[in-house]
Amino acid sequence: MTKIAPIAGANVWHGGDLAASERWQRRLTPAQRGEIDAALAAAKRRGLDWEAMTADDFPLPGLAPLFEDIREELENGSGLLLLRGLDPAGYDLADLKLLYAGFCRQLGSLVYSNRGGEIMREIRDVGRDVGKRYGELPTEGGTAFLSSYSRTLSNQALRYHTDRCDVVALFCIRQAMRGGLSKLCSSPAVHNEMLRRRPDLAAALYQDVWRSRFGEEDEGDSLAYPLPVWGQRDGKFTSHYSRTFVEAAQRRAEIPRVTPLQWQALDMLSDLADELAFAMSFAPGDIQFVNNHVIYHARTAFEDDAPTGHDRLLLRLWMAMPNSRALPAGHEVLWGSTDAGARRGGIGQTATGPLR
Prior knowledge:
Blueprint: H1 15-19, E1 25-27, H2 30-45, H3 64-76, E2 80-84, H4 93-105, E3 109-111, E4 121-123, H5 130-134, E5 136-138, E6 144-146, H6 148-152, E7 158-161, E8 167-174, E9 178-179, E10 182-186, H7 187-197, H8 199-204, E11 208-212, E12 224-228, E13 230-233, E14 236-239, H9 243-249, H10 260-276, E15 278-280, E16 287-291, E17 295-299, E18 302-303, E19 313-320, H11 332-335
Parallel strand pairs: 1-2
Antiparallel strand pairs: 2-16, 3-19, 4-19, 5-6, 7-17, 8-16, 8-19, 9-18, 10-15, 10-17, 11-12, 13-14
Helix pairs in contact: 2-4, 7-10
């Protein structure tokens, strides 16, 4: 490929600098909360449920400047935004789902987050049988290789990764007794630092790395696809990465091998992500928005204590954004469309029923 240049722009930041700033934080005003409550009450009077409602069913005209600000910060600013100001204690869970879906439909289009037609996922520890319910494969050592989806629904740490959508939103309903920190880093900052230290490794991540669809469209591990970890188009960067999907693909003998140089690059990516990241703790009512094209996110392990009300519960939505960037040629294999602003991403529907 042509000479690789460092990425520039507001998406490039170091964790210490961003943690010390408030540029990525917003708080709802009392007037905005009042408008949200009025839209919620109107939707409930009409008997609407969150799955069937549209953006027109949850009008929030007074929040239009806030929605534009959120979209701009995610695409052309830091790539992440934390919205505060809601109090979940004032609502039941059904109302919170209706409110959340109505709010996010004003920002973008909701897309499927699993192969069984699910759009909103309750992110919680579902128990020790998570692999049997949501995907696991045997290993020679006798331990199970969990799908990425299964790992999300455990209380274990999650490695740095991106999700298969323009923006992922997480609404905190309850926090764990301890742990469960969200770790965030700028993927173009990781790119730039690797380019500075090891340009050979940076170049290796612009080459195809095979990944498995295990836990996504594929109940087993028979489906795989090639895609570089890094790409650029029209001066904008994108990264799609989950080491779990790479490891799953390498279980199949017929899949092209990850090269030794690429394994070194993936190891360095993880090390740099930790070096450049910052950690934040959710408070109930927080909504975190992350642009997957420019942010790697991870999670620390957590411990629940349900009797005291400290059992971690987040509501997750995946969104295609109307102001999203164009993606490089070849990314259709994952995204469906590479056009700017397209409805894209999400998981293909291959299951015969919901995943529970």
